[in-house]
Amino acid sequence: xxxxCIYQVSISVLQQRRADMASLRALLALCSLTVPLALxxxxxxxxxxxxxxxxxxxxxxxxxxxxxxxxxxxVVEYSAWGGKLFDQVAKGTSTVFEDGGSEKRKLYIHRxxxxxxxxxxVYAYHCGSxxxxxxxxxxxxxxxxxxxxxxxxxxxxxxxxxxxxxxxLQKETQIGxxxxxxxIGDFAYDMDELHSKANEDNGRIGDEFMRQIQSIxxxxxxxxxxxxxxxxxxxxxxxxxxxxPGDTESLWYSWNIGPAHIVSFSTEVYFFLDYGVDLIFKQxxxxxxxxxxxxxxxxxxxxxxxxTMGHRPMYCSNDDKDDCTQFESYIRVGRNxxxxxxxxxxxxxxxxxxxxxxxxxxxxxxxxxxVYGYKVFNGSTEEPxxxxxxxxxxxxxxxxxxxxHDGFIPKPRDWSAFRSTDYGYTRMQVLNRTHLYLEQVxxxxxxxxxxxxxxxxxxxxxxxxx
Length: 466
Prior knowledge:
Blueprint: H1 2-32, E1 49-54, E2 62-68, E3 75-80, E4 88-91, E5 93-98, E6 106-114, E7 122-129, E8 132-133, E9 137-140, E10 151-155, E11 158-159, H2 166-174, E12 180-183, E13 187-188, H3 204-217, E14 222-224, H4 232-241, E15 253-257, E16 260-264, H5 278-294, H6 297-302, E17 305-309, H7 330-333, E18 334-335, E19 342-343, H8 346-351, E20 356-359, E21 365-368, E22 371-372, E23 375-376, E24 392-396, E25 416-420, E26 424-430, E27 435-442, E28 448-456
Parallel strand pairs: 10-12, 11-13, 12-14, 16-17, 17-20, 20-24
Antiparallel strand pairs: 1-2, 2-6, 3-4, 3-7, 5-6, 7-8, 7-9, 10-26, 15-16, 18-19, 21-24, 21-25, 22-23, 26-27, 27-28
Signal peptide: 1-40
Domain Purple acid phosphatase N-terminal: 48-140
Domain Calcineurin-like phosphoesterase: 151-365
């Protein structure tokens, strides 16, 4: 009897030891994935990443934005190129962004404004805090002269899978070819990545995309507008990650550079009505007032070019049945199924003499003849872009993403001047008050320029259409 009891106790102790050892092995395995075994605590993520610049619309300034995953101070140390390194310091603030996914991941978005910069001067900087610093970057403070000739790269629809144009853009930006980048909607594909509960990424693709574009956006202002791929959780990833001028969470804003007034707006207010039909009317009224101010004689005289950028185009000759393939496009003529009916933008832009309209969304490049109301208004047969009688539209959504190319209908529309399905992007230079140059780069053809035009206007404003 005693031997039986001893045997049973021994078996029980042995089983308990085996269970304890299994628990210990599991704990050690968990610890090995994070930090040294004796600690086994969550990692401290204070290292800055996803650094990018934007112009806040205030002369002689620049905003630097970055992300950490733990709370830290928001500090930028900077200096004029060639001077004592980091002899100036600016401090800012951070906000907590909680992604809408099931994990409710928290990101700390830091923003610091550098003020009192010397126009045209180069600055070296790094950002972070005593808990961790970024690598050293540099930028050129924007020239504030209205006779300056700024250069841009423009594109939309670039993801972190198949971003074919990215490498060329990285190199060209870092060698100083551009003064600013215009990204015309659709980032990462998608920043939230929530196509189903089984395919939920909780914002990590957004993090990776922002790391990828750091090699561009940490060197020149990276100016944006929202696209349809940013719609999740009421565009929260877009609204929180970028820092555009004004107080509309980057949804619509304007800024001045050289002889140009650039207006960025959201085409998506026409499509995601669950987030508020009133946004259509708020944006429209804001656009009307902004364009009215830009057209005051004293303003249009010094910044004659008005350029708009929005994601979904009014016109296109693609074969995918998007809004721009419809004769009565929402963006162009508005919506009649809202109360009251929502106004479109073509008449507004025409009445205020918008010169150039930049679009993306279609994963192609298309240049249009000057067009208004589906009619072509070329300057002349020989020189269609010299003193045209309507705005010029450029669609540049072929930077590269996982959705690959879009197709075209076989026969171009009368207003379609040039089309290409090559991956690539557009370059633009606003040379002076009368001349603006555009060219399309094909990344498929190793950087070859496959299309170019000079847009020449001796007169700006609605009077130019007469």
